[in-house]
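Recap quiz, item 2
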Amino acid sequence: MLFSFIGFIKFFIFVTNKVKMDKYKVTFKTWNKVASLYEDKFMELNLYNPSYDAFCKLLKANAKVLEIGCGPGNITKYLLAKKPNLKILGLDIAPNMIALAKKNNPTANFKIMDGREIGNIQVRYNAIVCGFYIPYLSKLECCNFIKDCCKLLSENGILYLSFVAGNPNDSGYKTGSNGDKMYFNYHNLKDIKSNLLKNNFRIVEQIEVNYPINNIDFETHTILIANVHST
Ligand SMILES: C[S@@+](CC[C@H](N)C(=O)[O-])C[C@H]1O[C@@H](n2cnc3c(N)ncnc32)[C@H](O)[C@@H]1O
């Protein structure tokens, strides 16, 4: 009886882990597949430029910047146009995104890497930029991510974070027009803010952008810019 109970628990853990793994596998595969489509749609989009300007204003001309979930390098390209001496390293899980980011930014560095591994990076950065990366992290992963960012930033380091604030219970698979699926996480704004504060960040700016999803409706996108304050 006891053996079968332990067997059941083991089986339950196995199934839970498998579902979790598949969620990432499916999402990463889709990002790799849609890299060029994403580039076409977002490379020149100027909707978020005021928020990039607000972030860029806080950076020294030759600051070391880490971009996580860099996609085709659209944010890096914008930042380098404003401050060409920034030293930027961009990370993304999707090889096709990294190939496009390199093509779009010959003076920056890029690497294929799972953003959930940033805790292993030994170098310190003056700033970290994450455009719509945390929608692909669970609540717990997002807490760890903010903790890791605090460790990776030098004194007074700046963090740029954009996401779609909402009820985490609404998180789930979204299917694109071509049938490809991605697992999308909504994060509670209050939770993100309190996590930032817990990890020594001070929120410098909060910006809300109305992103049109069709001719009538829009979705609110939130951008937080924060700095690590010295204790
Ligand atoms: C919505 S796109 C954002 C691209 C760009 N930062 C922007 O704001 O337009 C999300 C990007 O995050 C990447 N991504 C998702 N999960 C990741 C992970 N665990 N590690 C690294 N990159 C990830 C995807 O491959 C994709 O390029």
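The pocket of S-adenosylmethionine is lined by residues 31, 42, 69-71, 74-75, 91-94, 97, 114-116, 131-133, 136 (CB under 6 Å).
The two ends are 55 Å apart (CA to CA).
End of item.
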